Amino acid sequence: MALRPVLQFPDKRLREVSQPIAAVDDAIRELARDMCDVMYDEPGIGLAAPQVGEQMRLIVVDTEWTEEGAEPNPLILVNPVITESNGTLQWTEGCLSVPDFEAEVERAERVHLEAEDLDGNAVEIEAEGLQAVCFQHEIDHLDGILYIDHISRLKRNRYAEKRKKQLRRELEED
Ligand code: ZN
Fold this sequence. Notes:
Layout: H1 26-41, E1 46-48, E2 58-61, E3 75-95, E4 98-116, E5 122-128, H2 129-142, H3 153-173
Antiparallel strand pairs: 1-2, 2-3, 3-4, 4-5
Bound molecules: zinc ion (ZN).
Zinc ion binds next to helix 2.
């Protein structure tokens, strides 16, 4: 089965604000499964629905998994909201939708997250460090925000230029 392609900067669909999910149905469950497949295949530690072209408030996160080690154990979160955040830290982030780049971003160090699971049950999670960063990064996607929006305009513009040249080259090669 073909994996869903991940949209990449500067695709405008990554800039849309996603809609809350009114009720989890089979289509949502299938989308969540597809997103996990993409996340583990890439591999990544998180993915938001808009990255695969679905403007819905759904994220999958697995900060424990490594290619060699642990069994996949994804957190699948519907309508996630950060209700409290504390402290700050700097974290070097990358994104499957922002190819060939990483940059240091300031984030909250600890967050309290509320969401629903695929059975419609309320979920509350206290997270810190990498997992807290990952939640903030993925929820940003639901609001059309990319992590490069949190870095300096100079660095962002430089990346955008580089990416433009890269895409032009790819077009020429086709
Ligand atoms: Zn991302």
